[in-house]
Amino acid sequence: QINTLEIVQDSRNRWYACITVKDFPKQISGKGSVGIDLGLKESATTSNGDKLTTKQTQKWAKKLAVAQRAKNKHRVKAIHAKIKNSRLDAIHKFTTKLVKDNALIVVGDVKSRSFTNKRTKLAKSTYDAGWFELKRQLEYKCKYAGCQLEIVNESYTTQTCSHCLKISDSSPKGRAGLGIRGWRCAECGTWHDRD
């Protein structure tokens, strides 16, 4: 049963009909559980090793630069739309697979605002990662599939050993430790992938 119908226009002056329905067929979630680490190199890395890469801007950077220098506004809009659509497509495929395979999804509560202020040079990478869209899609897909979504505080999670639950001297600390992508716990010897 149709609930609403809205006619919208995108940045390329294309028109679309957005239809919402009252009864959406429920998707069945899987039986597993997964944790998700949000990042800039890979937009998301799951605890079972799957990675989501949404670095679409860099792929189109040269074509975008040529169109901007030529002052071709139509081409610039088309490239921006292509970047947005390919990012959304990658996130949709990733989140749908997560919900199909898992009954519990845990994701860190990373705020984009802390990476997009004037003091950091990470704004472009942060916007390209699409964290907000990833969480938004997970929320509504989990709701319809009966999957549990937990958003947790990420403080000290990359420094704390998941095996012995201690912060050892060997764990990476602060901004200086951001380059360290893997480390071994000095207490119990467990190897950790920082993502």
Describe the protein.
This protein is of the alpha/beta class. The chain has 2 domains: 2-154, no CATH class; 155-195, no CATH class. It is built from 4 helices and 9 strands, in the order βββββααβααβββ. It has helices at 56-69, 73-101, 123-129, 131-145; strands spanning 2-9, 15-21, 32-38, 44-46, 51-52, 102-108, 148-152, 182-184, 191-193. It has a 5-stranded mixed β-sheet with strand order 5-4-3-6-7, with helices on one face. Helix 1 runs antiparallel to helix 2 (73-101) and helix 2 packs across helix 4 (131-145). The longest helix has 29 residues, at 73-101.
Brief characterization of the structure:
With 195 residues, the protein is an alpha/beta fold. The chain contains four helices and nine strands. It folds into two domains: 2-154, no CATH class; 155-195, no CATH class.
What are the segments in which pLDDT stays under 50 over at least 5 consecutive residues? none
The major sheet is characterized as:
5 strands, mixed
Radius of gyration over alpha carbons? 20 Å
Structural class: alpha/beta
Q: Would you tell me the overall average pLDDT?
A: 79
Q: How many DSSP H or I helices?
A: 4
Helix content: 25-40%
User: How many structural domains does the protein architecture include?
Assistant: 2
N/C terminus separation: 43 Å
How are the secondary structure elements laid out?
Layout: E1 2-9, E2 15-21, E3 32-38, E4 44-46, E5 51-52, H1 56-69, H2 73-101, E6 102-108, H3 123-129, H4 131-145, E7 148-152, E8 182-184, E9 191-193
Parallel strand pairs: 3-6, 6-7
Antiparallel strand pairs: 1-2, 3-4, 4-5, 8-9
